[in-house]
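Reviewer comment 2.1 asked that we show a complete input and output for one of the modelled complexes. We chose the S-adenosylmethionine case, as it is the one discussed in the main text.
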Amino acid sequence: MAEVGAAQEDPNAQQAAYWNEVAGPKWVQLSQAINSQIEPIGRAAMDRAGVEPGQRVLDVGCGCGHTSIDLAQRVGAEGEVHGVDLSDPMLAEARSHAVGLPQLHFTQADGQTVDLGEGAYDRIFSRFGVMFFADPEAAFRNLRRVLAPGGSMTFVCWQEIGKNPWMAVPGAAVAKLVDMQKPPTPHAPGPFAFADAERTKGILEASGFSGVEYESLETGLTIGEGMTRSELVDFSLQMGPAGAAMREADEDLRGRLRDAVAQAIFPFLTDDRLVMGSAAWVFSAR
Ligand SMILES: C[S@@+](CC[C@H](N)C(=O)[O-])C[C@H]1O[C@@H](n2cnc3c(N)ncnc32)[C@H](O)[C@@H]1O
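Response of the prediction step:
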């Protein structure tokens, strides 16, 4: 099995560094808050995946393992769930929660290149873990190999940022004060790489999947449930491009960024709950 780290020519070395050194530790620290924010989307996608007791499921880009645990409960003791991810700190967090589930195991590996054996899984699932491949067509060709006859894949990915105020609103507030890094191309690896659903469908078909379908899932996300207003601002500033701006800002700029984000997000508060819109695609393919 190809483990991350050794190969110089690792096509996703940049993402591996990012998810091990920058984003991973942050996701671990904010794991519960991030999970409760996106859990409804993941559950809706999982309900569509048709996961049944006894099945073998691959969870791609499983991160801190919340979906892997859900999947393990769905397949039961007779099934198997294998979470694969680039990030060592996120997998350590995942393992720490995966107690009493012998059917669940994790591997640190690149989903684009890892060899998991032909026909070894009945289902592939991913919650926001498949938009980071340097070569998505190669990655999905690799993943398709692991599906057994009759197997299927279901994943959820973000629609365009303009339809995701939870990310766009704090991002726009920050962009008024800081020159934000733009992705090199609209489809560059990152959270919005699969926003163009027809293009994503084409990638899946080119990599050998059939019966590709997608469905729009639009829902209000509860951001930072139970947090104070000040914690909500700090939380919003750690997500996405705002996080990079904060890391590089001096004390004065940080203060101004906090004020700007507070002004931008507080209008979305209702009874002290911050609820912001989101739009994702649920893809399914055979
Ligand atoms: C947005 S996070 C989602 C994590 C998790 N699925 C969740 O919903 O909480 C993206 C995850 O994909 C992983 N990832 C990115 N590129 C990957 C690759 N090529 N192979 C495996 N995992 C990858 C990251 O390490 C990270 O854990």
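The two ends are 24 Å apart (CA to CA). We note this here for comparison with the apo prediction described in Section 3.2.
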